[in-house]
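Observation: inputs received (chain + glutathione).
Thought: call the complex predictor directly.
Action: predict_structure
Action Input:
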Amino acid sequence: MAIQLFELVGQDDRRFSPYCWRTRMALEHKELAYETVPVRFTDKDLISFSEQERVPVIRDGDTVVSDSWAIAEYLETEYPNAPSLFGGATGQGLAKFLNVWTDRTLHLALIKLVIADIQDHLDPADRQYFIESRSARFGKLPAEVQNRSAEDIKAFRSAISTLRAAMEGQDFLSGNAPAYGDYIVFGAFAWARAISDYPLLKNDDPVYVWRDRMFDMFDGMPLKAVGYDI
Ligand SMILES: N[C@@H](CCC(=O)N[C@@H](CS)C(=O)NCC(=O)O)C(=O)O
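Observation:
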């Protein structure tokens, strides 16, 4: 039976969760059969079987796993003969660092540039929940957070410069072939593309070139998802 992936959805079937993108790419990498179940922020009942309130969640037969990192570890352990997500224990250890850096640095820099765009692309049923929960987190409305100040743009560029330096001399963050570390970072760009037409990168930026390569993976599956042509 195919693995079920419960993932966040917005207006027009936009899949905009960076964490769900990590899991989607991991399932593709592992060449596993899966089907996605769209979940809105306010559809908490759809994932109540996972005994927590966030996506991604996967159901693989009788096994339920939530949290993108835990899912990646589960898939790697459960399907050892499928292509490896980490390339061994050392790679797994280093990917964990990238997971934390992306969550804490890249995502924080990015969300300030696109948070009102997220709000504008939500299913109407989710808007009030999003405004209230995010205003509580940031201390102001999403529309006020997203003012793209020089300081916020600088913070994002600084995160990108780290990625650019890491990519020098290699096609992917994981070396000469993509692996889970690439999917962690790629999730941020797949998220942005789903809901925002703001040009985060110049077309000749090596990070943009890498991003394009990632969008072309798996027969262009990420590019076929609803999003902006940026
Ligand atoms: N550490 C978790 C984070 C998951 C997460 O925060 N997911 C968001 C969607 S991007 C969510 O489900 N939020 C629910 C909410 O805000 O109510 C992971 O890596 O999966």
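Thought: report the result.
Final Answer: The chain has two domains: 3-78, 89-219. The domain at 89-219 is CATH 1.20.1050.10 (Glutathione S-transferase Yfyf (Class Pi); Chain A, domain 2).
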